[in-house]
Amino acid sequence: MYRTAPLGKRPRWWTELPLIAAVYAMYSAGRLLVRGDEASAVDHGLSILDFEKQFRINFESPLNRLFTEHASLGVPADFAYASLHYILTPAVLVWMFRRRPEHYRRVRTWLMTSTLIGLVGFTLLPTCPPRLLDDVYGFRDTMEQYSAYGWWGGEASAPRGLGGLTNQFAAMPSLHVGWALWCGVVLWRYGRGPLSKIIGVAYPLAITLVVMGTANHYFLDAVAGVAVMGVGLLLTRPALRLGERIRGRSPRSLPSLDTVRPAESPETPAIVSGGCETSPGTARPRRTAPGTPVGAGLPGAPERQREADGSDHIPSELPRQATREGAGDSRPDGAPAAAH
Questions:
Q1: How many of the other CB atoms lie within 10 Å of CB of 249?
Q2: What whole-number distance in Å separates Cα of residue 310 and Cα of residue 110?
Q3: pLDDT in tens, the chain (340 residues)
Q4: Which whole-number Å values give the CA distances from 14 to 19, 21, 105, in the listed order?
Q5: What separation in angstroms does the CA of 204 have from each of 39, 64, 89, 222?
Q6: Three-state secondary structure string covering 275-291
Q7: Among positive and negative, which fits the CA dihedral 10, 14, 16, 17?
């Protein structure tokens, strides 16, 4: 990801929480509303499996056999599949909000945009996961096999008795892999120290193995999850610009009538005293009679124009200066000629 300049002021939690909750509610509701019929979902799953076998990329088959034969691998994988994307993804988001607020809006927008794209994929392509295929295809649901170890049952990662609240045909793309990739990139890009970079690389790879080994996703589901995050990253900048435009057109961005003051007329300049300027709209016009010094009658104002200019006080009875022709007669006796 590329560095970005801060976008406006620091984000506020009371505006971020409703936004994140709204996007997640849309994601959850969309999974329930667009379940699709079982026949088409099974057809899509078998088509993906046949395509993988043709190119020998059906990595989920040997991984599922390995996880079902060894509980030391299958049980931790089930716990990771059922919980980590609900824990680590929000934790990284909160960490960015607190420690990297200047980059938070970009990574948050990237995550939300990609999630909505994934919802479109669930709508257009409902897919039966490997664990729900017929037994002849050799897959076994590890979460059902090891259900005694955790809170889940035989219906995806939902707690027992709540399987009806999830769409088990929302397999393409795998947002488990997509969200894990998002966490890895953010930790690698903005984390400090080698540990964050190690986790940033290991976590997406581990989740990819988990979703295939537990028979919840095909390998191409994981590839589609990576592709969705790539498209979401490309749409992040336009989404941010659209959000700025929407906020710019909102009524809250317009100035209120109370804050608008009439412009000061050029014919009535403001009175400035002691080097202090008056605020616009509060200045008083000058009202001086002809020949009266500026500021006459105000406290601290000079009594005469010459005094205001800093010159010495000259009595009014001082006779006018003689003309140039009579200048020599009025000069005192013995004054040098250069005094003129």
A1: 9
A2: 69
A3: 434 444 445 666 666 667 667 767 766 666 666 555 788 999 999 999 999 999 999 999 999 999 999 999 999 999 999 999 889 999 999 999 988 899 999 999 999 999 989 988 888 889 999 999 999 999 999 998 998 888 776 666 666 555 555 778 888 999 999 999 999 999 999 998 899 999 999 999 999 999 999 999 999 999 999 999 999 999 999 999 988 888 776 554 444 334 434 444 444 444 444 444 444 544 444 544 555 555 555 555 454 444 444 444 444 444 444 444 444 444 444 444 443 3
A4: 9, 11, 14
A5: 32, 18, 12, 10
A6: CECCCCCCCCCCCCCCC
A7: positive
Residues in the chain: 340
Amino acid at 241: R
* Predicted model pTM: 0.67
The C-alpha R_g of the chain, in whole angstroms, comes to 40
Residues 67 and 146: their CA atoms lie apart, in Å, by: 10
Helices (H), 34-174: 38-54, 60-69, 71-99, 101-124, 142-145
Residue 157: CA count within 13 A, CB half-sphere: 20
CA nearest 118: which of 40, 177, 191, 64? 177
Contacts 24+ apart (CB under 8 A), 189-193: 189/1, 190/96, 190/99, 190/100, 190/103
User: What SS3 state is found at 238?
Assistant: helix
Show Cβ contacts of residue 3 under 8 Å, excluding neighbours closer than 6 positions: 103
One-letter identity of residue 126 = P
User: In this structure, are residues 111 and 182 in contact, taking their beta carbons and an 8 Å threshold?
Assistant: yes
Helices 194-213 and 60-69, packing angle to 10 deg: 90
Listed in sequence order, the residues at least 6 apart from 250 whose beta carbon sits closer than 8 Å to its beta carbon are none
DSSP code, position 152? B
